[in-house]
Amino acid sequence: MGATISRTTVSTLLGMALTGSSMPLALTPVHASARASEEGFCRRPAPLPELGPEVEGNQQQRHRPSPRHPVAEGVPAVTTPAPPPPPPAMAVAAPPAPAPVIVPTGKASDVAVTAMRAPSSEAERARESVTMPFPPGHRRPQPQPQSGLLTAGEHDDLLNPELYSDYVRKSDLGQQVRALPALDTARLITVEVKDTRGRPAPFVPVTLRCADGNSLTFTTQADGTVVFFPGMDRLSSTVRVRAGDEAWRTVEVPRRAGTGRIGFTVDAPVRKVTKLDLGLVVDVTGSMSDELRFLQAELDSIVASLNARHPDLDIRVGMTFYRDKGDAFVTRTYGFTGDIAEAREQLGRQYAGGGGDYPESMQDALIRAANQQWRPDAVKTLLLVADAPPHDGDVPTAWLAAEHLRAQRVQIVPVGASGVADLAEYVMRAMAAATQSRYAFLTDDSGIGNPHAPPAIDCYLVTRLDKLLTRIIDSQVSGRRIEPDKAEVIREVGHYDAGKCVLPEGFGKET
């Protein structure tokens, strides 16, 4: 992997980089460029590029460096795992005690309110104290893959708009990537649809019409909501909204931070959620060998737990595995199947190999996922398991694919693996927020695999990965946020309150 991109506080450069303007436009999304006046309001994403058929056998034409840790085709990474390049720089600390580390949360000052990696608070120092470095060339002792060993945290940027705005403002990634998605989670229009008994109404079409006559239509998630982003969706100052066949309502779009919440009550019976399409997009380059081995074990646990909670739930699994141009393959896709044993076998046949440089062809894999046959009456969840971003020039295409997934009501759940650096975290968090989902990330609490870069997140709970992913997916199926039991919590960072970070006094008032 390449060097970590630094996080410096350059608040104006992101808007300038996105728009090519000499004046900062921090809320302008990647697509809202100088063409906005020509294209009008209520912007829809451009068509996806055609990728052509998938090919195997190193038939790609683009030259790329030889992998630092080559893995011969046909040799499973389970027997000869290739250690990844060093992860982003982080403080080196002594190995933790075997018992879980509990972070005190008695003071608001424990919360780190910055996107920097410096251990400026008790929570931040505790975050880094779980890093267990090993001498160069040595790997940690690796247990046999089984579910329940990997540990992870998660974060919902829609529940923490002030912190996400601060994170975006302090990022200097706009200097590195020409067209970086800038998502404003503090300025939203949320449409909430319920039935006459007050229950969330899933799969209801919600249409928003802009002043020039252009319109956008999304269907509600299982919680009965649809979120519009005035900047990314390029909304006019006044819009008209309706749910299903209900009467139109005129709404003033928030000009500043704040959420315009619009409620509708529909007379039609609520459609019960009975189907789940679970998509997996997995980076299988050489640095992902540990994650891939354990993911094969986690899938059974996740599906079994969901079946136990929802006995009548019809679950299908589809997968896309990806590497990069110049590898034995770029993408390898399996369509949705209700045969979980077949999906397990498909996953079990994969092994990590290739890579060589840091970025990978995430954008091609997301395009393949967007072209899968998602059922219109199913909850749609996409697990994006990766430790690297797309190449800088491919970020706009990856974001375009995420927008198409959003249009299909697919909720992207990124899982940041070992070595995730600033750009990968930034892109994956934006994808999660845009699709009303959450960003998950592996932690070092398990002691398995290579060190994991601490996220630029102010508060979270660490639990087992399989339990965490089950809770996220179950929340998307049930239409309500599900929190872990106290016994499941291994460690707490910052002040966590049901998905929200408690802000310290005076947050946001600094110059």
Quick recap of the structure?
The protein is α/β, with parallel strands linked by helices. The protein has ten helices and 18 strands. The strands form four sheets. A nine-stranded mixed beta sheet has the order 11-10-9-12-13-14-1-15-16, sandwiched between helices. A four-stranded antiparallel beta sheet has the order 4-3-6-7, with no helix packed on it.
Description:
This protein has 511 residues and is α/β, with parallel strands linked by helices. It folds into two domains: 111-179 and 273-501, von Willebrand factor, type A domain (Rossmann fold); 187-266, Carboxypeptidase-like, regulatory domain (Immunoglobulin-like). Helices cover 21% and strands 20% of the residues. It contains ten helices and 18 strands. A nine-stranded mixed beta sheet has the order 11-10-9-12-13-14-1-15-16, with helices on both faces. Strands 4-3-6-7 form a four-stranded antiparallel beta sheet, with no helix packed on it. The chain has a three-stranded mixed beta sheet with strand order 5-2-8, with no helix packed on it. Strand 17 (496-497) and strand 18 form a beta hairpin. Helix 5 packs antiparallel against helix 6, helix 5 (289-309) crosses helix 10 and helix 7 (362-370) runs parallel beside helix 8. The two termini are 36 Å apart.
